[in-house]
Please model this.
Amino acid sequence: MKKAQLFKASLAFCAVLFFAACSSSTQKEEAKADVNITYKDAVSAEGEKYVASLAIDGMACEMMCGNKISSTLAAINGVKHTEIEFNGAEEDNFAIVEYDVEVVSEGEMVKAVEALANGHYKVKSVEVVHYKKGDATEEVEEELSYSPHFDYELPNIFSAFARLF
Model:
């Protein structure tokens, strides 16, 4: 009789663990889907390419953390080049990734980074710039256009006379 009760109790315990494990993995997947991804277009004389800038939280150093993230991203099929922009442990740090959009997605890169070190690194946002082939000098000329303005304010003549008398 006691063996049957012990068996039922252990079976119930295993069922609770099973459902608890399933619900926590679902929450982790939902958390990964919360990354804000923005897209921009730009002109480049070099040709068409996609460059993603991943803002990563949790990096403590450039040598170990940065190299681990960079080598993990570089190992993904479709990633052409990676670079780490380390600004400090308490600052926003970035992984700059040039990649082939037809082979790898931004979501795959985010998952790869967040899977490192038991989820220690968190990707806060991703900014993707699509560089299109064109003449980059036209865009620069528009940005450098000069419009004169005066920051000097003429004095009030009445206040100048009031100080004299």
Observations:
- Strands lie at 36-44, 49-57, 79-85, 93-99, 122-133.
- The longest helix spans residues 2-32.
